[in-house]
## 1
Amino acid sequence: MIEFVNFHLVPGLVLGSIYALGAIGVTLTFGILRFANFAHGETMTLGAYFTLALIALTGLHPLLLVPVAMALTALAVLGMDRLFFRPLRHGPTIILVIASFGLMLMVRSLVQIVWGAKLQTFSKGIDLPWVLLDTLRIFPKHVVIIGAALGLMAAVHLLLSRTRAGKAMRAMADSPDLARLTGIDTERVIRTTWIVGAGLAAAAGALLAYDTHLHTNMGFRVLLPIFAAALLGGIGRPYGAMAGGLVIGMAEELSTYPWIGTEPLVPPGYKAGVAFAIMVAILIWRPSGLFRGRVF
Amino acid sequence: MDQLYGIFLYAVFLLTMGGIYAVLALGLNIQWGFTGLFNAGVGGFFAIGAYVSAILTSAASARHLGGYDLPVPAGICAAMIASALVAWGIGRICIRLRSDYLAIATLGIAEILRLVLKNEIWATNGARGISRIPKPFEHVAEPWNQVGMLLLVFAIVLVLYVLLERARRSPWGRVMAAIRENEDAARAAGKDVERLRIEAFILGGALMGLGGALMAHHIKFIEPNVAEPVSATFLVWVMLVIGGSGNNRGAIFGAILVWTIWSATEILTTRLPSEWATKAAYLRIFLVGLALQIILQKFPEGIFRERRFQTSAASVHPPPFNRENTS
């Protein structure tokens, strides 16, 4: 039982919060700009490496630098939008998917050129867990990650429900034509969408790197679970994406628990397949997702 | 003289690779160019073809499944059938949804396949891959075995080109273009849009399986990273977009052009000092990505434009259903 909590439940929550942050950006760009952004995983990678560069520059604790990395990533993504997505905005949206596919490899190769392809970590040394009740081990970093993710999700909630920009975003996700008719500046909504999505992705990337390590493939590795989370929650539904992220993260970690007998239910090598299996099931039985998102 | 001979052999080898990529690009052209289906998992279909043919034709080995010793053509046919079956499964699930979902699902299947190839060591020898795959014309004397493979690949490309051109002009091909241009109108004309799309997806998948099988036999070795997005999927997409999607000649020309540039720059970068060589390899990917973006923005039709069907002025009627009016 304790083993279940230590090695499956808590890591599942941690991974789930990271997926949730990433999935919000995917679901917002899919809902508002109407395309599946394949470069979103690389945005996470970029956020993690910006944090690494800032640590090298200032020597401060990674978590203090994450907000700066979020801002830098948002700026970079706004630049990418200006150069690669905006000129294609008025054609068929599937061309944007191709552009994002190309951008995914461009960003990754740039990261590899600048930072190299080796594994890196934010800080050397071992993170010792707090031991509660003799057997329950809680790593401080896990508490920090879940806390930071919850804080960011609360901020997204406030932005979407209390501010004009958030309302405009929701209006545009529901119907872009109607939003334009009511005088909403669509280009501005698109900019806000990129800033929110990129900021959250950068935070997710940095938190993932804080939990494990940095690698140039880290964003691509989580792209599929994040798409699965966004589809599970329903496209254009940020709260759905949060729930979807948690479900996918938990499912991945819980799937390796020996539920039947003593062997892991799913061999650890296939953990990434769990997200895909859930995604296929959704596409077959409920393409609108749990929160009744849009189906294009 | 020896050096020239070596260069000749290398050129034949590279040109054969170019021809194999042309098969892949023709497959993607059926899916994307003709029908507008986005496949982000070209590498996955390619890997299915490569592994199926490799396992069926290679000699028995303790390291992986095998020992069936089938002739190479039988292995290639099985590879095409296996890829077609996977395409059918994915098509059944995603084809009625918008292309983005198909893109995500195909990317997913390529990733899952890579996990299977890495983890099922009993069948695939895991990350070490399968080696000593038989090659056609292997027992012929030195230059002619390579030349034979080159001729075989180009004969396949030629046959595919002729068949696909006929398909494109046939009623089937015209319905495909109609579906891509205006799905509602095609549906209103009584066409079974889902069924036709799945057919195009299966046909394209089978050609990608064929390309994978040919590659496995050509380089005699296959490992899980062939399904990586960079090496297969992305290159094939760039080839088709640069050559001109919707045009079979464009697909073949784009494949050979991009493959020539890709391998020529590889020769250049490997001559650099090792530290710069790895950076230059990444820079190469960056530049190919940039080229794709420039083509998408400035020359969206590619080098060879899609040839539209000739209609005489008298037969042109206003379309009965217009997207803006119906939706």
## 2
Amino acid sequence: MGRDILLSIRGLRIDGRSGDAWHPIVKGVDLTLHRGEVLGLIGESGAGKSTLGLAAMGFARDGCRISGGTINFDGIDLRTAPEAIRRGLRGKRIAYVAQSAAASFNPAHRLIDQYCEAPVVHGVMSREKAEGDAVDLYRRMRLPNPEDIGFRYPHQVSGGQLQRAMTAMAMACRPDLIIFDEPTTALDVTTQIEVLAAIRDIVRQSGTAAIYITHDLAVVAQMADRIKVLLRGDEVEEADTRSMLAAPRQAYTRSLWAVRSFARAEQPPGTGTPVVSVRNVTAGYGAVDVLKNVSFDIHARRTVAVVGESGSGKSTAARVIAGLLPPRKGQVLMGGKTLPPGFRARSRDELRQCQMIYQMADTALNPKLRLRELIGRPAEMYLGLKGRALETRIRDLLALIELEPDTYIDRLPSELSGGQKQRIGIARALAAEPQLIICDEVTSALDQIVQEDILKLLDRLQGELNLAYMFITHDLATVKSIADEVVVMQQGTVVEHGPKGALFARPKQDYTRLLLSSVPEMDPDWLNRLLAARGEHA
Amino acid sequence: MTGIWRMIGQRLLLGVLTLFIISLVIFGATELLPGDLARELLGQSATEETLAALREQLGLNEPAPVRYWNWLTGVLQGDFGVSMATQRPISELVGARLGNTLFLALYAAALSVPLSLLLGVLAALWRNSVFDRASNALALTVISFPEFFVAYILILWLAQTGLFPSMVRITGATTTGDLLYSAFLPALTLTLVVTAHMMRMTRAAIINLMASPYIEMARLKGMSPMRVVLRHAVPNALAPIINVVALNLAYLITGVVVVEVVFVYPGLGQLMIDAVTNRDIPVVQAIALIFASAYVLLNLLADVLSTVTNPRLMHRT
């Protein structure tokens, strides 16, 4: 390489505590980073990416310990150096950008105060100089009103802007190394592009080295010079970005590349009375209308994907259909019959017809109930099943979601993996024998390979049980694989609505085109081409 | 800023409504007390005629709603009526005692609030250390004893040795310095009683935040543990701390009867006990209303301070 080595990690082992026992999280990983180089760390949840990233700062979270190996940062051994030395490096020579800027900015202080903290405390520059510097960096990060934005509190600034402000904060002392821990995962696709471009430019201009942690291959392809793939605390392989993308050597890497291969055949257009029909609905909270004159139909055996950025009204539309939020105007029809606006006024049978599956299976399942009760209750309540019949039904449902009944029927949610929990969410919805299932971001908290399984399961169940799906998501790759029709929403209105094939091939509206073009592609030149095409910078 | 004034206005109105309901409860409760006030005042030997005359004079023959109305309108004009036992105006009687009670409460607060905040912050900073365990154990030990026991122990240790007086005398000639010296033991007793609650709440509120991403961020910016706690955790823990402090201040004003009795301190609590034994109903009502107002006002203050210290509520856009 011919360049200086900035960070060298050898045989690193990190343990995490569960109860009284320590179990390995990182199992002897080597990592070499040169000055000015960007290394992408990629893997599914539990791969140890964040733990490894923090270890590069000589930091282990509470409940973790670095148990072996060496971490050498520019001649300093971060494992043996005194805490005062490590503290002197953090924020000054090694900086960190967290996944959720909204949670990682202190709500009690203005952005500029948080920006100035590291340079002033580390004695790098005076407060006045730091403030001037902040405005300059805010401008380079293309934040609106760079002079004033620092004087706002975190809650007054949008998520994408906060993420850029956090990158500016990390740059404050002109560090040699920045750890980016999933910095765009929580953002909408259209916002993600701006943040990616701003991060990439500032890292390149300043010659800062970076470790870029993400689970999104297409994102890492835009950002990194080299990519290292991790699986359960072990390195799978490492190569420079282009050769890794062109020819992954390991089977696991190829399996990561191959996801999203699932695409179901587009179903014939719906005929007859739609299962659910939303007619000219206007709804909102307080004085604000979140939905404005929204209409769409969902037919049996069809999947309608509702896409849009956060705040576009997708989930509010679901709440109106479910009766959780009575609309101000318009109505919801089920099988051609007008439903009462609020769920309290609906009959038990009307409630049964429409079930929901939630994004966070973790919080949507009562942790104190066993699967028998979780799935059994709706079957008991809606269908009046008891005793032997109920038991049989629960077992059938477990078999339907591909969980072995004898093994799982008496388990608690805490004894399941994330994907299994989401399967229970599906079984609970199916227990009511509904016609419509509303899936609210059901795959976005899951790893890509698990997502694939859940999508396949939903697809199979739809065919077997004649279900209609309303599929709310911000992930267009998911839409491509499962939807029949797409409803594009922006700021509470339906911007475009049509069959998937036509909509993806020939989007009619500018907003749809913007949304579609913002989905990162695996090609390392994608971001450059896109930015050039949009004429945002040279 | 108009938002905050509006909020204060709303809370004040709610406070007035609460006090109105409390006045109804107080009046109703004293109505339920058994016994005949006139007989109590005149003793067993009184004749029926003198009793009737006294009832007439005290207005006891009027129906309850009329008496309530008369009492309420009087209170609103600052006139709590006349003590039945001493025939002196209640405002005069209560005035001096209220001053004494507030003095003792402030004295104890000035000792206990800084002490418990300091201990709470340090315990959070060095959590699970020897210091943390020791201060927790000590604070819990002290509140586990009844107040009078703590008071007698202090008298045994600090008054029997002649360091501090065990009785508080307040006359017209008492200077503030004398008062601070002679009221030290009751103030110390109260401090020991309320510190544990405030300290443990401070510690819990801070530790609760220590797992937040922004605390990790501060540590990853290389900030020292002390700075992380003081600058990043404490400002976000203020609301629960302010509320527990307000609750304990209210307790210091209203709940100190036992300590006043032990140290013969001429405060409102003693006056209330005397009034209850004498069936001096107007005095009991007046003091109950003052105690209730203290709770309402301090809670209002806590609400306002919690709002003012929270940027998310102060800068909504």
